[in-house]
Amino acid sequence: CIRDRGKPVNIRTVSHYGAPLRTVYFCYEDEVDIIKARLTAICTQANIAPDTWCDLEAAGSLNFFCLPPELAVQRRMDLPQPTPTFDTLEQFLAKNNIDLCVIDPLSAAAGLQNEDNAGMNHFAKLVRSMAARTNCTSLLVHHTGKATRGALDHQASRGGSRLPGAARWVLNIA
Fold it and tell me: Average pLDDT, stretch 45-49?
């Protein structure tokens, strides 16, 4: 068990065995230097050589895109529409045979005016379609709502309740 931001993280729960996954991390909250410092700290605490992730990055198996433009934009009450950034991401995933795309957090990536059911569901479908076209697993990181903080069920996410229904799998980390 290791700690990130003072909270325990069970590495075995989120481990992958076999060849390393080719991964893209689309981060809307932190600059790349902060992400890399956190990865180094996590590796150190888990007794993993920090240069392990550095080697993966150098080989093109670990890619960071920090503070990118939104993947979609929603005008008024229309459904969110993909932006050129969405198209560029999809092309990158396909060209580089990426296995896993992490989008963190969903609210910043989706470009929604509000997190209603229709907008959240449509954005989730856009990402799911991209995943199918590129054969790449997509992981959307989303925050819990204030009223449901501490809840461990799949409905704890903030915004529209259709988002958990659009997901194949929901992991709530409390």
Answer: 88
Residue 123 phi/psi, 5-degree rounding, is -65, -45
**Using one digit for the tens of pLDDT, what is the confidence trace for 74-113?**
988 899 999 999 999 999 999 999 999 999 998 899 998 8
Residue linked to tokens 């939104």: 70
Asked whether the beta carbons of 122 and 165 are under 8 A apart, the reply is: no
Q: CA-CA distances (angstroms) from residue 103 to 120, 127, 137, 141?
A: 14, 10, 11, 6
What beta strand segments (E) does 5-132 contain?
7-9, 23-27, 62-66, 72-73, 81-82, 100-104
Residue with tokens 């433009």: 69
Where do we find the tokens 């959307």?
A: 140
- 3-class DSSP assignment, residue 59: coil
Paired tokens of 114: 């509000």
